Amino acid sequence: MSLSIEHLKQAAEEKARERRHFEQIKQQRMRSLQHLDKQIDRLRLEEALLQGEIRYRQQSTIQEALAGVDRFGKLV
């Protein structure tokens, strides 16, 4: 009888170790996902800033080009 009780104790301990191990894996994956989310947000912000800079440069180029042309389309 004591053999089966000891066996059940060992099985329960093993199950508990497995649960802790899987919980650690789960927590590690959650941290990795959070890190990736932060990187994605940072890259989206960088992309938005770059797109804004591109639009600004395009507008500046157009304004400079228009500044050199009179209302009849002739270069000044």
How is this structure best described in words?
- Residues 1-20 are annotated as: Disordered.
- With 76 residues, the chain is mainly alpha-helical.
- The chain has one domain (1-68).
- It contains 1 helix and no strands.
Brief account:
The chain is 87% helix and 0% strand. The chain has 76 residues and is mostly helical. The protein starts with a helix and ends in a 9-residue tail after the last helix.
List the main descriptive attributes of the protein structure presented here.
single chain, 76 residues, mainly alpha, rod-shaped
Walk me through the topology:
Elements: H1 2-67
Q: Let me know the number of strands.
A: 0
Q: In percent, how much strand structure appears in the residues?
A: under 5%
Whole-number count of domains: 1
Low-confidence stretches: none
Q: Which class do the helix and strand fractions yield?
A: mainly alpha
Radius of gyration: 32 Å
Specify the helix fraction band: over 70%
The end-to-end span amounts to 106 Å
**What is the 3D shape?**
rod-shaped
The biggest beta sheet reads: none
